[in-house]
Design goal:
Elements (H helix, E strand, L loop, with lengths): L3 E6 L9 E2 L2 E2 H8 L6 E5 L4 H7 L6 E4 L7 H11 L4 E6 L7 H9 L7 E5 L5 E9 L3
């Protein structure tokens, strides 16, 4: 996953500290995305201190939004500014069951100068928060 970074959005209604089988759901997700060399977490105002308690990998950058009101577009833009790579895998914090196989399938479909590759459930349904995007999109 050299060409692609990982951007994780901590959504306001999704509790990343909720435990599942003794581990926070965010920890489950971080284990899945550990194959990425660059990982950035974007969280709402006032969450960074608590996140640092469960995010033990010092290479993971935590970006805290200044605004109290959460905006998905603003959060993505703030996260993108912190990324060094041109492409990033976008995932929400409430998706601990996303599979490494999913990342790899999306990577295989990546072509030069592509803007977006989404995971499709069917021809009608796709997951925009489980996709690879270009910073130029």
């Amino acid at each position: 996953m050299r060409k692609v970074a990982c951007l994780i959005l901590i959504l306001p209604n999704a509790n990343p500290f909720l435990k599942l089988r003794g581990k926070e759901i965010l920890v489950w997700l971080l284990e899945k995305v550990s194959l990425f060399k660059e990982i950035v977490l974007v969280c709402g105002k006032g969450m960074k201190k608590d996140l640092k308690k469960i995010v033990r990998n010092k290479k993971i950058k935590i970006v805290e939004l200044e605004r109290k009101r959460f905006s998905l577009i603003y959060a993505i833009k703030k996260g993108m500014k912190s990324l060094k790579k041109k492409y990033f895998f976008l995932v929400a914090s409430n998706m601990p069951f996303v599979l490494e196989k999913t990342f790899r399938e999306l990577m295989v479909r990546m072509e030069k100068n592509v803007s977006c590759i989404c995971y499709f459930w069917s021809l009608k349904d796709f997951e925009s928060l489980c996709a690879i995007y270009s910073k130029n999109f």
